[in-house]
Design a protein that fits this description.
278 residues, 19% strand, 7 strands, single chain, elongated, 9 helices, alpha+beta, 7-stranded antiparallel β-sheet
Amino acid sequence: MDFFAHLQMMRVPGWARITIYLGFVCLMTACGFLGWQAVRAQAPDSWLTAAVALFAAIFPLMVIILVATTIHAGVKSIREETDRFLDDVLPATMTRLPEQKALFRPWDERSGPRERERHAKVEISHCRGDCFADYRISYVEDGSPLVFTMRVEMNIRRLNFNLYLPQELIRRVETRDDPETLATETIRRRFFPHTLQASSVDCSSNREDGEAGVGAYVFHERVLMRVLDGRPGYVLVGSCRLPRDVLWNPAETLFVAQDLMFMVRAMVNEGAELFAEA
């Protein structure tokens, strides 16, 4: 974690800020008084020089301390960065779920990347300050409209991913399991034989002190029941550990969003029959 991340995490007490601001007001008043006296009384240049020198000495320090004391800090800063990830970074990344048609062209030094023509429609349900958000995403893949809903829960050091499954899934799964205790393994074998298996392999290869490594998703052994907008549903729940500075390091923030996007794309494409719009 770099110096600026530490600076953003610091917390300056209110009384200290007020004391600093009052001190600066006094110093600026002194500078103004010296300059005014030099002009009004036509005093020697030493008065004006003293005012300018005093102002030049305190101005850089004033700017630095003002920035340090007014920067968003502590819990408020963490909540705002979490909101930014859920409201801005992740939805913008999810709009790139559809595969773009490959149009190859000769390359030269003046050729640049073309603009993307296909985007997913992302609808979001999120309240400011909440560390979770629901997303309804729709797009067309291979001529078939796909619609799915997911929830992302981000609590600083861990990200939980919830993929909602249609109610009629239970009637289509060939199993005698009680729907209340439906195993994720059953869903994996039926609809996600490759993507969830790849996640399990990634998890086992990133073990550190008995825990999943950073960025490896671990899926709950049971399909859970959740209520969304008053309607009960089934969800696959996966979670992963996050890097310590994910909220302040743009590279880590973008990595988490893009990694989730790639996993969601793979799961939706593999289990497309679950998310095909009727």
